[in-house]
Amino acid sequence: MSVLELRDLCVEFRQHGAPPLRAVDHVSFGLEPGRTLALVGESGSGKSTVVRTAGQLVRPTAGEILLDGHPAGRRGRGLRAYRRRVQLVFQDPFASLNPMHTVRHHLARPTLRLHPRHGRARLDEYVHELLLSVNLTPPEEIARKYPHELSGGQRQRVAIARALAAGPDVLLADEPVSMLDVSIRLEILNLIDRLRQERSLALLYVTHDLATARHFSAEVMVMYQGEIVECGPSDEVILRPAHPYTQLLASAAPDPAASRQKLAEARTARQQARARRSGGDTQRREGAAGAGCRFRGRCPHAMDICGARPPDAVVGPGHRALCWLYSAEVAGPKGTVRAGG
Amino acid sequence: MTAATTAAAAPQPDDQTRSRPAGRLLEALHSRRLVVGVGIVGFFVLLSVIGPLFAQNPDALSSATYQPPSAAHWLGTTQTGQDVLAQLVVSARASLVIGFGAGLVATVVSVLIGITGGYAGGFVDEALSLLSNVVLVIPTFPLIIVTFAYVKQGNLTALIIVIALTSWAASARVLRAQTLSVRNREYVLAARAAGERAWRIVLVEILPNELAIIVSQFIFAVVFAILTQATIAFLGVVDVNLLTWGNMLYFAWNDEALQSGAWWWFLPPGMCIALLGMGLALINFSLDELLNPRLRIYRPRRKQEPAARVVIRR
Amino acid sequence: MSDVVLRAEHVCVEYAGPRPTRAVRDVSFELRRGEILGIAGESGCGKSTLAYALARMLKPPAELTSGSITFTRPDGQATDVMALDSEALRLFRWNSVSMVFQSAMNALNPVTSLSRQFADIFKAHRPAMDRTAHDARTRELLEMVGIDPGRAHDFPHELSGGMRQRVTIAMALALEPDIVIMDEPTTALDVVVQREILDEIERLQSELGFSIIFITHDLPLLLEVSDWLAVMYAGSFIEYAPSAAVAAAPAHPYTLGLLASSPDMRGEWRELRGIPGVPPDLREDLPGCPFAPRCPFVFEPCREATPALRPLTGRGGDGWRAACHLHDPGCRPGGPPAALRSEAERERA
């Protein structure tokens, strides 16, 4: 049973002199306690908008947000109750803490607003508990510090502690480590993972890094231009991607295990593929106009039928892709046709 | 097993280590501009406070008219035999009160309008922007002159308020722009996610981050107010009972000091205005450098004995 | 053995200030013609400072406090980069060594068109060229990096991020330099675009034969792209190794940790660990090995003496160096721990 569910979520932004930008287009998914769902996509795919909408920082144009099956409160007390249960961790550890306030302020405010049982008497104790739970010691010293006195990793730990202050059931992590140094990323991800296990958090892990998405989450969703184009168990989606966009992402990732020769071959293959497609790469980047599949401009398997909106086809157990290649019409009654990969 | 990150761990090497206000103050004193600026402004403040206790009576008429500087009158006399230095000293008080008073009121108004509009967005923002733009576009001096036609003379408060209300608009626009930028920062979003109410976010999260700009705008407003008062005085909108530098300039011009060659009458007040303006501007610039480390230009002190000089291989 | 095009010896760069930051500490290396050298390191390790020093683009308060940088022209003549005067420096910059900066938006002027910016390069460095020659060469360069030459008069904001970065690469290659220094050229880009740009760089390099110093924090990327890999930590090179071999058998514990910090997407699941602790403050003197506080293999000599970047015996080809006491038979006669042994050493054991 999902703790947080988004149904047919749409978010549009008004633009001057242009039709509204559909940043999020009919996105649906559910988060379950104790499980991590990864949301993978490039910049501009809409994944940050999904997180902010799920955190009720951006108002959706259409669709529903359900908490424990009931519509989430949008105002006043209902909204506060929602915030108590759904919290966010932001991407930039340098920007998500107010440079004018101490660590204690950052942890005390959400506690006082959303978890007042701890009141003033216990506040300091609770703040120290939070700092210990993210491995920041000694807590008395850290609580007094200002953000610029902490390293990037420490700041992100404070951001995580702040998210935990309200005692949430759902944690939405928007690229929590992409702005940190490589050697400390895994520490932070391990921390988040441990907290998820200990507190049975329903975790949404947004990232552009397929490797950590695979290793830290049970399920992966791939987003392209506002739509979920593929979702399924993480090993399946990442090792045996079905949607051509996921295949493109997977092939673009560095492969340290490959030999020099294999790399050279892969490079030549890519260059030939690029040469085959006609020039003018701006058109490639932007979504193809019209109602059809948004990826068809860049897809090596594009067909005429792709001009119509593709169905949400089943590729395997729990594994779906938004692609004509796997629909009954194209794949035929025999079963799914695997494209490349 | 994740290692505990201790408080002793060093922050990134290029962080500013100025964690205590005292440290920053000491650093501030290294800035020559700040010292000079504070010195000038401090001098005038001191002058306005204790000067009148020692000066002669500025209103005392005498028969020694148009006297150049002498032992009896250090800055000479006016056309009516009044002591210029005494007038100068007493004017300092009124000029400073008008300057800082109007500057304060203008800043408060611009903060209220600019930040509220910037944070609220939507209709409120549009309305407040419209108001700012209208006030900005209206020519200041004709507006003041017309206003004073209706306001009774001798009212210092009225003068302060009128100057303030015609000069807040530019600052409001600046603050609105800054707020638009700050409100999308992640720490503001985080505060919203933590359930904070809008007024608290504006006051506690946003305002402190704009302090640098607000202080800067305040100082500009003070300079502007002093210059505005001087200008309108020169144009004739003058309360003859009030002694300000601007008024002195008006009287000097009116009584043809320039033609008479009585430089000691119009030069001192003009210079005081200019000096005070310069002092405030110096403070403004050095504060900028202090608060935004990226603007700091490293000025190396005299080099010590060369440690390891460049070894050029030939 | 191809000839050396750039030689850095004992380069030290310091940022002056009340407490000077020694950002680059005694770095020496050789870059050969046509070679791609990757410099890997995390934030604050000094790699960008080193790049600017090599291109002689350091600005106060940064200054080179000791060391030499020697550039050898194709005709064999050696030049001391730091001794160049203004005329010779102008000839050197962009003709011999050019740079691709991290963010194209930092390098491209947002208010002038691309053709104007290319023309600026030619006007500054090739005064003999006239307007038609500028236009022709600009079109040639844009085509070379895969951009429609008709876009020469566009402004930077009209191009996508990947295209902008290609333009900066084209600019860096405008005068056919011998060395191109690339400082995180793909970090701000999407993984797909990054792959395209890298392919482009590799193609151009094989066609035109220039050397590349490729600086990034993304180690797996360097393993694919570079010939030799230098890992930088706390201002010094702590390992210098052939890229093809280092992933399987890193010599320095920091390299091992960095490799472990970048999980392989396709690999088996294993417990993923980073490197605990934080890099040291470069304003301090760092007695002993700078990595000692974070090293899982730390032992006594580490705190006493700073290890020098020493060639490793028993690693087949020459040139592989590491700055670690674990590889010093004088400190550790039994050889390094298993995790840091070369393939050959492991087989022997």
Q: Which SSEs are present, and which pair or pack?
A:
The complex is a heterotrimer of chains A (341), B (314) and C (349).
Chain A: E1 4-15, E2 18-31, E3 36-40, H1 47-54, E4 62-67, E5 70-71, H2 76-85, E6 86-89, H3 103-114, H4 123-133, E7 136-137, H5 139-144, H6 152-165, E8 170-174, H7 182-199, E9 202-207, H8 210-216, E10 219-224, E11 227-233, H9 234-239, H10 244-252, H11 260-276, H12 281-285, E12 312-316, E13 319-322, H13 328-331
Chain B: E1 5-6, H1 21-29, H2 32-54, H3 84-120, H4 122-137, H5 140-150, H6 156-165, H7 169-182, H8 186-193, H9 198-206, H10 211-234, H11 245-254, H12 257-260, H13 263-291
Helix pairs in contact in B: 2-3, 2-13, 3-4, 3-6, 3-7, 3-10, 4-7, 6-10, 8-9, 10-11, 10-13, 11-13
Chain C: E1 4-15, E2 21-32, E3 36-40, H1 47-54, E4 62-72, E5 78-80, H2 86-92, E6 97-100, H3 104-107, H4 114-125, H5 131-144, H6 161-173, E7 179-183, H7 191-208, E8 211-216, H8 219-225, E9 228-233, E10 236-242, H9 243-246, H10 253-261, H11 301-304, E11 310-311, E12 321-322, H12 343-348
Parallel strand pairs in C: 3-8, 3-9, 6-7, 7-8
Antiparallel strand pairs in C: 1-2, 1-4, 4-5, 9-10, 10-12, 11-12
What would a concise description of this structure say?
The complex is a heterotrimer of chains A (341), B (314) and C (349). In chain A, 37% of the residues lie in helices and 23% in strands. Chain A is α/β, with parallel strands linked by helices.
Name a few traits of the molecule.
heterotrimer; A: 341 residues; alpha/beta; 8-stranded mixed β-sheet; 4-stranded antiparallel β-sheet; 13 helices; 13 strands; globular; C: 349 residues; 12 helices; 30% helix
Task: Explain the overall architecture.
The complex is a heterotrimer of chains A (341), B (314) and C (349). By secondary structure, chain A is an alpha/beta fold. Helices cover 37% and strands 23% of the residues of chain A. Chain A is built from 13 helices and 13 strands. In chain A, α3 runs parallel beside α6 and α6 runs parallel beside α7. The longest helix of chain A has 18 residues. Chain A is globular, with a radius of gyration of 22 Å. About 3% of the residues of chain A have low confidence. Helices cover 65% and strands 1% of the residues of chain B. The N and C termini of chain B lie far apart (54 Å). Chain C is globular, with a radius of gyration of 21 Å. Classes of the chains: A alpha/beta (341), B mainly alpha (314), C alpha/beta (349). Chains A and C meet through α7, α8, α10, α11 and α12 of A and α7, α8 and α10 of C. β7 of chain A pairs parallel with β1 of chain B, so a sheet runs across the interface.
